Amino acid sequence: MFRKLLAILLVLMLTVPMALVSAESVSLRFIDVSPSPARQEYFEKTFAKFKEETGITVNYESVPWDDAANKLTVLGTSNQLPDVMTTWAGWLGQFTSAGWVRPLSPYTKGTEDQYADTVTKLVWKGENELYGDTYTVPDGMMVKGVFVRKDWAAEEGLDLDPHKGWTYAQYFDAVYKLTNKEKNGYGTSFRGARGAFDPLFVYLQSFTGGKAYADDGKALFNSPECVAAYKTWNDLYLNSAAPKDAINWGFIEMVDNFTGGLTGTLINDSEVAATCIANMKDDQWMVMPMPKSDVDGKIYNTVNSPYAYSISTHSKHPDEAWKLIEFLTRPDNNIEYCKLTGLIPIRKEVGDDPFYGPDGYYATFMQQINDPAMVVPCAFGPFSYTDMHQGMMHEEMQKYLLGRQDAETSLNNVAKELETRMIDYLAANPGSKVEQPKGLSD
Amino acid sequence: MDTTLLIFLLVVVVLFVIGFLLLRHYEKQNNNAARRLKLAAQPYAFIGPVLILLLLAFGWPLINSFIMAFQNYKLTAPNAIRFNGLDNFQKLFDDSDIWLIITNSFVYVIVSVLGQFLLGMILALALRRKFRGRGVYQALVFLPWAFSAFVIGLIFRWSFNGEYGVINDLLVKMGLITEKIAWLGTPGLSLLVVILAMIWMGVPFFAIMILAALQSIPADVYEAADMDGCGPIRRYFAITLPYIKPTIIMTLLLRTIWIFNSFDLIVVITGGGPANFSQTLPSYMYTKAFSSYDFGLAAALGVLLIVILGVYAVFFLRVTKYNKAGDF
User: Fold this and answer.
1) Structural domain tally of chain B?
2) What was the pLDDT predicted at B30?
3) pLDDT one-digit tens code per residue, A347-374
4) Are residues B205 and B143 both part of a single domain?
5) ipTM strictly over 0.90?
6) Which of B1, B150, B293 to mutate to test the interface with A (most CBs of A within 10 A)?
């Protein structure tokens, strides 16, 4: 009798939990690659709402931005990627070629009219051109601008009007005027370390009509005009319009030294506005649009999303993962998220929020993305360039800044490597074409 | 699981099974011989489990890194991993910065080890005799050894910050400089800052080890030397130094290897910059592995490191006649 009871008990112990597990709702893993207490609170709160509405549990994971590329790469190679990830556009070449992210066109098809033009005409169009499908849904949009110390500019008598804009020549002039070493003030938050080539690349493309490569894959951004532009850009550091330490500055140092009062201008994305709002007085800062090209008068500016939601191919619940992305980008949730993180919403329905109106903090950014003169220049390429972005690009620039090599060699080394990869890519992908610059009017 | 790892495990298991079967075979054939063999085999049986763990924890990664050194192993292209012969080594020596990095590595190691050793020796000699407050003083000067390299790195990074750092502030206030120095942005100085941090962190290790060795020298040897009219310098070179020579040799050897392998301070303080001017072989290896994801090239660098350190260890032990050290 005892044995029978024991056997029944054992069977129950084994089967009941299994039955409970199978009856339990779907559980998703979500990873944020740019965590902060505020973001974590937002996501956890939103996931709780999502569970109430759908019954699907979402487990929040995070990895600090500096380690994010490593972590996702390791997770990807070990087939452990979470269901939904926040990813950066620069990783997409690597992720798509490795087959780590799922095409989203089966989900997004037919819904395009709900999204802002910046999403459909720029991000998705670009992904389709480069990778053959839509792989991400932006968490919000950002566009670059020049953050300026309004009080310093007034002291120097600079007439800065965001509506009129300015050219690169006027921008460089302003930077030098804002440099006052006696007051321990420098004209610009110069980026000398990781990511240093990004804003410089856009400036160089203002001499190439926004192009990076010719149709055969040959680099265009190392022409004599571009080499001269390369020197002009780096002269800001060499002529002491930036602190000498700036050779080691990345994103954090640039922003900290602008908001901390050491530098007078900062070229960066609209997401920095949130930091300025939090740390500076309204009469201390303003945003100017990116300077117009000295060649054709157009504004070459990147429009992208800081991070975008994607579904990993390792996900066993892609439909539920898509439901989560839909929920996160639903107008009410998206606008709350964008206000928190300093982004521009991705849905058309929220475009008239006063926060993003002509008197709001984002007025200059909104003005730029509605400006027919704005052109989005080409990216480095559809191939993986993570290694170059993490090393060679800024190292070559640093060697020039330190006088270890001339400007031509420095720029040509980067151009040659990118050109080789572009030509290899074109050869390995018959039918593929070199990316073209895009405007919202296209 | 990786096939090569499976094969490796299988070989280890098979070797143990063969050993066990042989033992049983001899046991059956000859009882006396079996007993002798059993006794002889006992130490190996005891160290067996640890040996297996060591082989798994160190042997396998070592073998795997040797294999990777001859592969195109990039995490950015996981579908294109294949053997590529000596390409990684070719790429390594074609790198225009490699000789700068090798030079940096030797400067970093030699200056750091010498600095740590000399200051550690002075500290140990100073702490040898009892004085009021020695315990507190000893605890304070040994403190850097207890800090993590990450914390020390952050302390030095901020102290030597060109704009806000305390070092520039002090130097300006003392009138030694008029313009702020970009310590971390100037070739040569950035490596110097890392070396200073490494010396500061490692002095207590030498001091602790040498102090322990000093305290083990019998007092009567010094008394006899005093009676013979031996002066302090002669006493140091004729008694103290020979007595502590084994400790010095071993600590120098260990510290050199540790410092040569360390990259944490470099990554935290300068990130190897500017333009690789404070990069050493291990920090470059780390960068190649975890920034560029080129594990093949990083493994080739690892092999180069093993060769350099192996040659150094053999050469050092021979030159210092370690086997004869401490013989009087």
Assistant:
1) 2
2) 67
3) 877 656 778 888 888 889 988 888 888 9
4) yes
5) no
6) B293
